[in-house]
Amino acid sequence: MTSSSARERLAAARLYLCTDARSGRGDLAEFADAALSGGVDVIQLRDKGIEAREELAALAVLADACRRHGRLLAVNDRADVAHAAGADVLHLGQGDLPVPAARALLGDRVVIGRSCHAEGEVAAAAVEPGADYFCTGPVWPTPTKPGRPAPGPALVRYAAGLGTDRPWFAIGGIDAGNVGQVLDAGARRIVVVRAVTEAADPHAAARELAAAVRSYDG
Ligand SMILES: Cc1ncc(COP(=O)(O)OP(=O)(O)O)c(N)n1
Ligand SMILES: Cc1nc(C(=O)O)sc1CCOP(=O)(O)O
Ligand SMILES: [Mg+2]
């Protein structure tokens, strides 16, 4: 895949899933198949504290699923792991590697994203050289990111008001019951964790979210 096609596919993505290595009650491949066939466009392995060797093993499972479904594989935090896994995407938070350092390690092929939690961070990420997309959140307080204050839908409205061409996603506390509020605030792309990883039927959960987000297209 060329770098431009990964960027184009990231721009076309509407539903981005972060999962740990244990989702699917031990059958990560089955879980990934269910989520991807339900409409997830990007899967990130987000498993804080996992050892690199174990992380690479889980990424190999997700990479195989992404290849079969033609979707993007994302790595959280670590440029070395993204390189070793042959990932399409690296996601960096405000406290992670600076974008130029990651870009120097990964070259132009890999899509790089940034987390933002305040207006100033959003304004900076919208023009930051080397960054391809950004995320705003948490929209609502979430146990997945304990202790992270939630700027709420106001930050989504701020990002939408910038009118930037750079792709951006809303994240934090989003599920099928409140996704309409996020879309009404101006988001056209979302990231979820529990709404799919903790769903009794991950395929149906992904399908419902993907349909909701895509219903705001065009
Ligand atoms: C797609 C996506 N958006 C935001 C985050 C959060 O990144 P960060 O703030 O670095 O926090 P951790 O996830 O590393 O705990 C993300 N991982 N992915
Ligand atoms: C990983 C993460 N990052 C956030 C941010 O605001 O950057 S919120 C978050 C957790 C989102 O999990 P859930 O969908 O289960 O609420
Ligand atoms: Mg991080």
Automatic annotation (TrEMBL):
Co-factor remark: Binds 1 Mg(2+) ion per subunit.
GO MF annotations, alphabetized: magnesium ion binding; thiamine-phosphate diphosphorylase activity
GO cellular component: cytoplasm
Pathway per the UniProt entry: Cofactor biosynthesis; thiamine diphosphate biosynthesis; thiamine phosphate from 4-amino-2-methyl-5-diphosphomethylpyrimidine and 4-methyl-5-(2-phosphoethyl)-thiazole: step 1/1
Thiamine phosphate synthase/TenI domain residues: 15-196
Binding annotation for Mg(2+): D77, D96
GO terms (BP aspect): thiamine biosynthetic process; thiamine diphosphate biosynthetic process
EC number(s) given by UniProt: 2.5.1.3
InterPro entries found in the cross-reference section: Aldolase_TIM, ThiamineP_synth_sf, ThiamineP_synth_TenI, TMP_synthase
Gene3D superfamilies: Aldolase class I
Cofactor(s) it depends on: Mg(2+)
Reactions the enzyme catalyzes: 2-(2-carboxy-4-methylthiazol-5-yl)ethyl phosphate + 4-amino-2-methyl-5-(diphosphooxymethyl)pyrimidine + 2 H(+) = thiamine phosphate + CO2 + diphosphate; 4-methyl-5-(2-phosphooxyethyl)-thiazole + 4-amino-2-methyl-5-(diphosphooxymethyl)pyrimidine + H(+) = thiamine phosphate + diphosphate; 2-[(2R,5Z)-2-carboxy-4-methylthiazol-5(2H)-ylidene]ethyl phosphate + 4-amino-2-methyl-5-(diphosphooxymethyl)pyrimidine + 2 H(+) = thiamine phosphate + CO2 + diphosphate
UniProt-listed Pfam families: TMP-TENI
Binding site for 4-amino-2-methyl-5-(diphosphooxymethyl)pyrimidine: Q44, L45, R46, D47, K48, N76, S115, K145
Keyword terms: Magnesium, Metal-binding, Thiamine biosynthesis, Transferase
Job of this protein: Condenses 4-methyl-5-(beta-hydroxyethyl)thiazole monophosphate (THZ-P) and 2-methyl-4-amino-5-hydroxymethyl pyrimidine pyrophosphate (HMP-PP) to form thiamine monophosphate (TMP).
Family classification: Belongs to the thiamine-phosphate synthase family.
Protein name, as recorded: Thiamine-phosphate synthase
Source species of the chain: Actinacidiphila paucisporea
Gene: thiE
